[in-house]
Each structure stands twice: as structure tokens, then as C-alpha cells.
UniProtKB/TrEMBL annotation:
It holds the Pfam family DAGAT. It comes from Skeletonema marinoi. Its main location: endoplasmic reticulum. It is an enzyme of class 2 (transferase). Belongs to the diacylglycerol acyltransferase family. Keywords: Acyltransferase, Endoplasmic reticulum, Lipid biosynthesis, Lipid metabolism, Membrane, Transferase, Transmembrane, Transmembrane helix. This is Acyltransferase. It is found in: Endoplasmic reticulum membrane. GO terms for molecular function: diacylglycerol O-acyltransferase activity. Coiled coil: none annotated. GO terms for biological process: triglyceride biosynthetic process. It comes from the Eukaryota. CDD domains: LPLAT_MGAT-like.
Length: 319
């Protein structure tokens, strides 16, 4: 049985919509401004421009951020609730009761989400909607995000962990569950409002990891991640983004500014795939369960795309 959560049935009050726009825009503007600020601060420090004291003052927020670790916070997540109304957020949990019971009984899961998008506003809204769940199941992020001053503190409220294979293995071996974005930054540059493209064919490492550790995989589809913002897919910034595995390219939404489009978004959690525990999986084992995963992701897309106006006529391509 599906559990459905909707945060907007009618048009929200204008103040809620406006606050939601501000909250969402803080994240998108920060992703553009923080790298520029860090580069400018570094240049000021190196050149001691305009003076040594002035350059130190400019760089002070950066130094403070380096010292302060990321702090996951349910309190702050609850303050971001207007964002749910701005986007008309909805969530569907296909097998929520059984998954929760399994977790309570000691079973752990690898939650696999797609598409990545420029910024995962659907994933952020899911965390805001259920902040306690976000604290129990961390989200894996690129090392660059976790190590970049200011950015690590801003995004750290969502309970992020390093997405390295070593760290994921450590979490799963310790009995924890984790959410990962399968396509990563490579998928960002496939974002398009006309069609949906997932970078998935070559992404089989998560299946191998799940089989080895004996954890089940739960597919998640994020409708709206690729439509609320558009990205510049070429040029030096795009190339740098790919190398650093972090969004550094120029992107835009409403009014050609980094303001996300206020469109309906949908968070869909599928059923566990039922992976077996195979300590030394063969390539055939990995390919088999990867194909099962791709089929389930396709089913989720086709089953629920009609609920999202911007997706009704979209076709899904798995690259």
C-alpha cells in the first residue's frame, strides 16, 4: 500500500510562497556565490589587497567555516518548511510501513536516488518534510561539497556523509542505511526540460556493494530535479564541475536568475528489490540485479509521471 504525503492542495498563502522562494533561492545563489567568494578571498590573501588587515577581514568567514564542522539540524530543517509550499511538494512511499519495520528490526538499506539535477531540491524537500528520517539515514555527497568552506556548513544541515566507496562500505557494515545519488555530477549535465536522461548504464558499483554487504536496494525517483533549474552544459566551469564533482557551472530558473522554478515536484520511494547476500558476486550477478534496478526505476517513472505537469510528455532515457 502506498503512503502519500502532500503539502499543497490549494494555492498557498502569498507569504508562504514568498518565504519558500527565498529559502530555495538561498541554496541556489549560495552555490554560485560561495566559489566566487572563496576565490576572491584567496586572491586577496595572496596579494594582501587592499591591505593585509582588510584581506584577513574578507577571509574571516572562510576561516570560521573551516573550523566549524557541518552540523545536521532538525531544527533548521523545520524552519525551511515554506519551501515545500513553494514547490508544491508531494511524496509517495510505496512500501513505507514494511521498510520502517525492517529498519527497526535491524535491517539496513541502500536508498538509491535519481536523477541528480543541479541541486536536489526534491531531496531537500524530502528531508524538510521528514527531518527525523533525514537524521537517521544520511545522504552521501561528493567529497568536494563536504570540504568546501561555507558550502559544507550550508548543506551539512541535511546530514551529509562522504560518498566514497570506502565510507559507504563502513556505514553499511556498521548496520546503517544511507541514501546515494547514482548518477552524480555526470548526470547534472544531462538535465533537460524536454526529456529525462539518467546516467545509469555504467553505474553498477552500488549494486556490487549491496550484494557484498547483504543490504537491499530501494529505488527513489525525484520528479522535478531536472526541471526547476537549467544549467550551462559547456565551457570551462562545466569542465571544472566534472573534475571536482561539484556544481560550479552557471544555472538559472525563474527570470533567468538562480531562482528555482515554482513547479510541482514529486518524491517517489519504490519497494526494496530483494537483493540476496553474495560475498563475491560475479559480473553476471551484478548485471542481473542492475537490470532489475533499471527496470524498477523505469516503472516508477512511467507510473507516476502523469502526476507532474512538466513530466507528462517526457520520455525516459537510460544512458
Amino acid at each position: 500500500m502506498c503512503q502519500q504525503t502532500t503539502h499543497q492542495k490549494e494555492k498557498p498563502p502569498i507569504h508562504q510562497w514568498f518565504l519558500g522562494m527565498i529559502v530555495a533561492s538561498i541554496f541556489s545563489f549560495a552555490y554560485l556565490i560561495i566559489p566566487i567568494y572563496l576565490l576572491s578571498s584567496a586572491c586577496c590573501l595572496i596579494l594582501r589587497y587592499p591591505t593585509t588587515n582588510a584581506s584577513l577581514a574578507v577571509a574571516l568567514p572562510m576561516f570560521i567555516s573551516i573550523i566549524i564542522p557541518p552540523l545536521p539540524s532538525t531544527f533548521i530543517l523545520r524552519l525551511l518548511k515554506p519551501m515545500l509550499y513553494y514547490f508544491d511538494y508531494e511524496a509517495i512511499y510505496t512500501d513505507d510501513k514494511n521498510v520502517r519495520q525492517a529498519i527497526a528490526g535491524g535491517k539496513n538499506f541502500l536508498f538509491a536516488a535519481q536523477p541528480h539535477g543541479i541541486l536536489s531540491f526534491v531531496g531537500m524537500c524530502a528531508a524538510v518534510s521528514k527531518p527525523d528520517d533525514a537524521m537517521k539515514v544520511p545522504t552521501a555527497a561528493a567529497s568536494a561539497v563536504l570540504q568546501t568552506p561555507l558550502l559544507k556548513n550550508l548543506m551539512g544541515i541535511f546530514n551529509l556523509v562522504d560518498a566514497s566507496a570506502h565510507n559507504l562500505k563502513k556505514i553499511l557494515k556498521g548496520g546503517g542505511s544511507v541514501l546515494i545519488y547514482i548518477g552524480g555530477i555526470a548526470e547534472l549535465f544531462k538535465s533537460c526540460r524536454a526529456e529525462e536522461r539518467l546516467y545509469l548504464k555504467k553505474r553498477k558499483g552500488f549494486i556490487k556493494l549491496a550484494l557484498r554487504e547483504g543490504v537491499d536496494v530501494v529505488p527513489i525517483y525525484l520528479f522535478g530535479n531536472t526541471s526547476v533549474l537549467s544549467a550551462l552544459k559547456h565551457g570551462p566551469l562545466a569542465t571544472l564541475s566534472r573534475k571536482l564533482q561539484v556544481s560550479l557551472t552557471w544555472f538559472w530558473g525563474k527570470y533567468y536568475l538562480p531562482i528555482p522554478r515554482d513547479e510541482k515536484i514529486l518524491y517517489v520511494v519504490g519497494k526494496p528489490l530483494g537483493l540476496p547476500h553474495i560475498e563475491e558476486p560475479t559480473q553476471e550477478d551484478i548485471d542481473k540485479w542492475h537490470a532489475v534496478y533499471c527496470d524498477e526505476v523505469t516503472k516508477l517513472f512511467e507510473l507516476h509521471k502523469e502526476r507532474v505537469p512538466t513530466y507528462k510528455h517526457k520520455k525516459l532515457f537510460i544512458d
